[in-house]
Amino acid sequence: MTTEKSKICFLQAKEALSNNNEQLALEYFERAIQQERTPENCSYLGYCLATQRKNFNEAISLLQEAIDREPENPLHYLNYGHILSMTEDKDQAAVILRQGLEYGMQFEILGALEVIGPRKPPVFRSLPRKHFINRYIGLILSKFKLR
Which CATH class is domain 2-116? Predict the structure, then answer.
């Protein structure tokens, strides 16, 4: 009985997502995961939590759980990559998306990688990419089309 309710909630949530109603999808995924904690429910709930409530910590935790339980499902990597790009961690998002390429969904994952864009090397390679000097000098050089 629980599995059946979970499947119904999952299908309703997927329909809501396809209609671009992420708030309704979030509610259905929350109900689905209460009934049954499947990797797919975790993956989609994590995505919806990130997009709707900006709860990135819980979303990342759910996606890591989904990948741990079902490591060969490219959907989890795609959702995880989207969440990481929302948190401005584009380097890690690209790494996760490339890992997902090994398992399929090439078109969707390549599209997400294209949105992230190619990563130019940092201006000062001895400093981390996120260091404020690298970020601001890089922005200035890009603005003047010197990079």
Answer: mainly alpha
